[in-house]
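Exercise 7. Predict the joint structure of the components listed below.
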Amino acid sequence: MKDTIISLLDGAIVTLKHQGVLPNDIQAVIKVDPTKDKAHGDYASNLALILAKPAGKKPRELAEILIAALPQDAAVTKVEIAGPGFINFFAATTAAAQVVAQVLDCGDAFGRSLIGKGEKVQVEFVSANPTGPLHVGHGRGAAIGDCLCRLLEATGYDVTREFYYNDAGVQIRNLALSVQARAKGLGPEDASWPKDGYRGQYISDVADDYLAGASVAADDRHVTAKGDPDDLDAIQEFAVAWLRREQDLDLKAFGVEFDVYFLESSLYEEGKVEETVKRLVENGHTYEDAGALWLRTTAFGDDKDRVMRKKDGDYTYFLPDVAYHLNKWQRGFKTVINEQGADHHSTVTRVRAGLQALEVGIPQGWPDYVLHQMVMVTRSGVEVKISKRAGSYVTVRDLIDEVGRDATRFFLAARRADSQLTFDIDLARSQSNDNPVYYIQYAHARVCSMLRKTQDAGQDFDHDLALANLALLESDQEKAVMNRLARFPGVVENAAKNREPQQIAQYLLTLAGDFHTCYNAVKVMVEDDTLRNARLGLGLATRQVLRNGLDLMGVSAPEEM
RNA sequence: GCGCCCAUAGCUCAACCGGAUAGAGCAACGGCCUUCUAAGCCGUAGGUUGCAGGUUCGAUUCCUGCUGGGCGCGCCA
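Solution:
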């Protein structure tokens, strides 16, 4: 429909250029948008406003000329000029109703597109170090990152989900020391407890399993405990595997799967870190000062230079980061999106600067970042800060256990990444109309119920009869639903392009609202076969889009509630 | 002090690369279940989009300055 209108307007411009009414050199990107207010018709274009200046005419006057030159089309019943010069189009019912046929025809594919042309995209998200269970912040990253991947897949990209983690640094040593302390019967209150040791209950669990000689299997490793409390390296190996498994279980419970787990240690083992240093030094972007090796990142927009190699000879985290991203580039990812907590935003400029200094043709501003702000969890209006499992933070699993996977995913992905999020446990777990997840799922279940009812009555849905009678869907409420359905592909495209998963959540809420309104206004189970089937067709199309949208968020679409 | 992000109804949040009268939900008030699931619907009320300027036909959206909040400013990650 939208495309039809664009081509009509295009036709008008061509005609007017021929007639000399419009200058030939005029270039216009024709924009047609669905209207917010149905008094403005179904679609509107600001073309006359855009062209007014180059055409040397007043907007409303130009709008009149454009309308006069508009080719006839059965899909458009009325065209009006409104406001400062908008051209409003009223779609014929039959034309608008075609979306129902289209949705039923496309099924799961409705809303999907090939915009990405199979281009490889890598999305790195979560990337938690294996030092504890995943916390809410990781949860937000997981929800946003996974939804983003689903959006990119739906728009035709070849997506790789990647999880990067450090399995060897100072913090991992700290983990091993903490487990060792527990294995030796020490607690945080003891004088010899490691400085900055991890205190959660899970540390004791790891220690117990280690002493018991347990085996753990994670996605990318399998380790059997040695049981010797004096062997710190063995403890470390076991602890990392144990927490990798723990995080695997967190992610599994959350319904997120990764294609690649990338180990920071592999960059050292394969000499990638050394290579990166060498390249940076050769390019003349480094210098030594106070026993450390520095990279002149200020030459690439950073506000201070950064240490690459500490005076003790170890590298800072920053260097493997650069090596890792070089690796991504070398794997052929022209588009890489890093989903991270905004508390790490300072790494963005740094990593990009390092990549520029490599001088290997990586574009400025590569890779892309999606940064999410902090999450605060509240219960009964009070911030929740502790969890038995992890000690000082709320875990993803705590939330899933308490409010369920659907609500957790929805709540964490339904807000813009760059605004702070308050996760209200009471709201998320309430089985009531306060809860937006249920509002959407209920709409889906309602259609399913409707379908069951007709089947019970021996009035099975007649697909052909429905499609032949879509013109009967005449009420304002039905039209509102149809117009909403028609917008879905555009919303998906936009959400993917802008990397904004929350747009899907928002869309689903409005679609569910349109549907509930329609449900109350228009009865589906009527005697008239043609009418009943047409309406049922609309219901089924709505169900399909709700399902497709929920699937993009990784949220289930229950058949009954 | 410097950098990044945010500020929209009493509360939680939307607003589709600048569009028409800024929208939902919750909370408040008034209605709707012998009829497809009331986890729903209809109606009423609620706003100087933090403040002050600027850009233009038009600004919640873009720019500048301020105020308030979050995060960061390690040879930690």
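Discussion. The domain at 2-91 of chain A is CATH 3.30.1360.70 (Gyrase A; domain 2).
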